[in-house]
Amino acid sequence: MSSCPDLRGLARAFAGCCLGVGLLASAMAAPASVDPFPGIGRAATPKEIQAWDIDVRPDFKGLPKGSGTVAQGQVVWEAQCASCHGIFGESGQVFNPVVGGTTADDVRTGHVARLNDRAYPGRTTLMKVSTVSTLWDYIHRAMPWNNPKSLTVDEVYGVTAYILNLGNIVPDDFTLSDRTIAAAQARMPNRNGMTTEHALWPGAGFGQRQPDVQAVACMTNCRTEPTVASFLPDFARGAHGDLAQQNRLVGAQRGAPTGPVEAPAAPSAAAGMAPPTALLDQHSCTACHGVDQKIVGPAFGDIAKKHAARPDAVAYLAAKIRSGSSGVWGPIAMPPQTLSDADARSIAQWLAAGARK
After folding, report:
1. What is the pLDDT confidence band of residue 354, given thresholds at 50, 70 and 90?
2. In this structure, is the dihedral angle defined by the CA atoms of residues 143, 144, 148 and 153, taken in order, positive or negative?
3. C-alpha distances in Å from residue 250, one per residue of 4, 90, 102, 236
4. Rounded-to-integer distance, Cα 260 and Cα 239, Å
5. Tens digits of residue pLDDT in 275-310
6. Handedness of CA 283, 284, 290, 295 (dihedral sign)
7. Structure pTM?
8. Model confidence over 232-288: pLDDT tens digits?
9. Are 23 and 43 in contact (CB under 8 A)?
10. 221 half-sphere exposure, CB direction, 13 A CA radius
């Protein structure tokens, strides 16, 4: 829901979109009586196609019937969205703000003036997004990040209405539905700021342009791998403080750490214990935790420093992994994890040993 959306939710939404397109294409590629790939899989059933074909176009094709008020959306938002995106869309410590940077004049003209203001410190979701369908579709597919596609259609309408109300796009008593969404679209601040040059969907206004699906340049004249040369050298770090700790004017956006490089900590007695990489990847732990650096949740190394000295560290950490946590390391909650006791204990043993690479 933010402009820098949760990567797990976005990846799931993108994977679902790709699979849905693939299933739809395979079902439509040949008559039912012809098997283009004999012995490989089977044709997708209409029910399977319907389950994946949930995208909503900017012309609202694919939008399901339903409705939700601003007030109903606020209830859902505060229960399931505010922990990451803030009560008023200003966002917490990690995600970019959803709301802010737009004016009444932007709503009138359909162009966000601050997108051309290089001095303005951030770009919020409502500054950039051009269509209500983008908001609705992404919330429907990918939110909440830890349980995507769990909101009902009416809840998605309500949450979308609440976001639009926070941006002063719709009034407090507005009911967003499949019948009123066009009225909301007519007030989107950046509705006239999008381009159709990509020709990614058909419709009036595209003329004779064709999407770039010919792949004529594929695997020829490929660009070389870029070399990243923008990392700060050690002598330049800390010149202006640690930028990662400095709040911007719009929300709690933070940059990459630029403070002085700390000397590595002395190795512990159990420093040779290898991380359970397979378990960390299998249970998506690394989506929110780095070994030495905080991502959404605290770094594994910081957890180890805080709890490794406890006599019951393994049992304590295993229980926290399975039950989840809230408020210990900041406002972003960790939901309960559905892994086995054995897997939780293996990860806890590594943390208790010092969480070394």
Report:
1. confident
2. negative
3. 14, 8, 12, 26
4. 9
5. 888 888 888 888 888 888 888 888 898 888 888 888
6. negative
7. 0.55
8. 777 777 776 666 665 555 555 555 666 665 554 444 444 446 788 888 888 888 888
9. no
10. 3
